[in-house]
């Protein structure tokens, strides 16, 4: 009897250690995946364009790839930036329990990798496309990506907020508030808070001569 209990305890301990190792593995893989700045790397390799030097905000992101390397290359960069967030989280979600703080960190890891890429000395992108990718990977378990998409559409078409960085900040605030109020899995809420915190920090710095404007159905509010 004592042997059976001891054996079970050992087995449970080994299982917990195995799961911990798996979570840590996927967190590292997710961060490294996110750290590859496709929107900077691909235009530089194939178009000989460094989007960080051409753009005013020096952001190695999809929007600048579209603007300075063309729609075709920009579209490829968009798919890569979304995919590098989607793939590691999707694979992990199929193999691990979708609960716990470690799962929250796992979801946020690719976003952190993109925003603070070690290959650019911590000066990564704004991580918007990658944020969509990691949240998209949670379907159909969680539909938070639809909340974020709806927020962007609302603040782009109905209550239009300019500039884009301010629209992004408001949209990610709405994501966190909605995720909490809708009583979504608390660990998904934690992930949303982490992701939003990273994205908002990366979007806080205003551009030079930036004009702020809010319009409701075409009518200027302020």
From TrEMBL:
<feature type="transmembrane region" description="Helical">
    <location>
        <begin position="172"/>
        <end position="201"/>
    </location>
</feature>
<dbReference type="InterPro" id="IPR003811">
    <property type="entry name" value="G3P_acylTferase_PlsY"/>
</dbReference>
<protein>
    <submittedName>
        <fullName>Glycerol-3-phosphate acyltransferase</fullName>
    </submittedName>
</protein>
<keyword id="KW-0812">Transmembrane</keyword>
<keyword id="KW-1208">Phospholipid metabolism</keyword>
<feature type="transmembrane region" description="Helical">
    <location>
        <begin position="68"/>
        <end position="93"/>
    </location>
</feature>
<keyword id="KW-0594">Phospholipid biosynthesis</keyword>
<keyword id="KW-0012">Acyltransferase</keyword>
<feature type="transmembrane region" description="Helical">
    <location>
        <begin position="23"/>
        <end position="41"/>
    </location>
</feature>
<keyword id="KW-0443">Lipid metabolism</keyword>
<keyword id="KW-0444">Lipid biosynthesis</keyword>
<keyword id="KW-1003">Cell membrane</keyword>
<dbReference type="GO" id="GO:0005886">
    <property type="term" value="C:plasma membrane"/>
</dbReference>
<keyword id="KW-0808">Transferase</keyword>
<dbReference type="Pfam" id="PF02660">
    <property type="entry name" value="G3P_acyltransf"/>
</dbReference>
<keyword id="KW-0472">Membrane</keyword>
<keyword id="KW-1133">Transmembrane helix</keyword>
<dbReference type="GO" id="GO:0008654">
    <property type="term" value="P:phospholipid biosynthetic process"/>
</dbReference>
<feature type="transmembrane region" description="Helical">
    <location>
        <begin position="100"/>
        <end position="119"/>
    </location>
</feature>
<feature type="transmembrane region" description="Helical">
    <location>
        <begin position="131"/>
        <end position="160"/>
    </location>
</feature>
<dbReference type="GO" id="GO:0043772">
    <property type="term" value="F:acyl-phosphate glycerol-3-phosphate acyltransferase activity"/>
</dbReference>
């Amino acid at each position: 009897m004592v042997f059976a209990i001891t054996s079970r305890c050992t087995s449970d301990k080994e299982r917990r250690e195995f799961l911990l190792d798996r979570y840590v593995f996927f967190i590292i893989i997710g961060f490294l995946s996110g750290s590859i700045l496709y929107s900077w790397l691909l235009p530089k390799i194939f178009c000989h364009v460094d989007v960080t030097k051409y753009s005013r905000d020096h952001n190695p992101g999809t929007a600048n790839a579209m603007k300075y390397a063309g729609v075709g290359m920009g579209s490829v960069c968009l798919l890569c930036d979304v995919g590098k967030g989607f793939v590691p989280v999707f694979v992990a979600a199929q193999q691990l329990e979708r609960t716990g703080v470690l799962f929250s960190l796992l979801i946020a890891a690719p976003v952190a990798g993109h925003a603070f890429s070690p290959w650019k000395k911590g000066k990564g992108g704004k991580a918007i496309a990658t944020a969509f990718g990691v949240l998209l990977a949670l379907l159909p378990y969680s539909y938070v990506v639809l909340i974020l998409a709806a927020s962007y559409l609302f603040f782009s078409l109905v209550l239009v907020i300019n500039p884009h960085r301010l629209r992004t900040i408001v949209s990610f605030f709405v994501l966190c508030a909605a995720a909490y109020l809708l009583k979504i899995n608390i660990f998904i809420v934690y992930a949303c808070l982490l992701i939003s915190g990273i994205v908002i920090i990366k979007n806080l710095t205003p551009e030079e001569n930036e004009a702020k404007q809010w319009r409701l159905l075409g009518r200027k509010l302020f």
